[in-house]
Amino acid sequence: KNEVEQSPQNLTAQEGEFITINCSYSVGISALHWLQQHPGGGIVSLFMLSSGKKKHGRLIATINIQEKHSSLHITASHPRDSAVYICAVRKETSGSRLTFGEGTQLTVNP
Amino acid sequence: DAGITQSPRHKVTETGTPVTLRCHQTENHRYMYWYRQDPGHGLRLIHYSYGVKDTDKGEVSDGYSVSRSKTEDFLLTLESATSSQTSVYFCAISDGHYTEAFFGQGTRLTVV
Questions:
Q1: Each residue of B100-109: pLDDT tens digit?
Q2: Is the pLDDT reported for residue B74 higher than 90?
Q3: Of A64, A110, B49, B76, which has the fewest beta carbons less than 10 angstroms from its beta carbon?
Q4: Cβ-defined contacts of A24-28 (< 8 Å, 24+)
Q5: What pLDDT digit, counting tens, does each position of A39-51 carry?
Q6: Do A86 and B106 touch (CB under 8 A)?
Q7: Do B101 and A33 touch (CB under 8 A)?
């Protein structure tokens, strides 16, 4: 079983919908990252969080350390949000290294 | 955007040939990483560096070696490329345990 699990693996939405992507992990962590990868493109860091909630524009990330769970929300989704969203954790025992989920492919249709 | 550049961006090579990928940063970050990305596996760590001449293995290091002779450059070498090393390779940098990671644009390597 992977230490970092994302759900769903694939998600299709209509423009304007509220989207939630989930990440569960089974290890102690010092931080959790949400990353975005567009087709054929590089990987961009969206959030790094260790507690609570962060917001940037239409994106909101939350984390519950006790439940070992994080969510990434996208409000008023747009076709340009179509990308792979990747959850990664920095384990307490791994220093600066990251352990990644397999990603969630999001497609937002106009 | 963080200053991190990978070269080449695309490469096709033959089985058995040596290949070197370069990661160059202008951020003076201490940590540098090489990952490979394959369908069904997500990103997996090949090797990483925590300073000049200080490197360590990741979870999929067999068949790969690295070198870091300067803060800004981290080289990944496939001594004798195999078809199983066909992948997209990403370099990343970070400045510490509690800081963001920044990724390069990736190198698509095909071994034929």
A1: 899 999 999 9
A2: yes
A3: A110
A4: A24/A68, A24/A69, A24/A70, A25/A68, A25/A69, A25/A70, A25/A87, A25/A89, A26/A1, A26/A68, A27/A3, A27/A89, A27/A91, A27/A92, A27/A93, A27/A99, A28/A91, A28/A92, A28/A93
A5: 877 899 999 999 9
A6: no
A7: yes
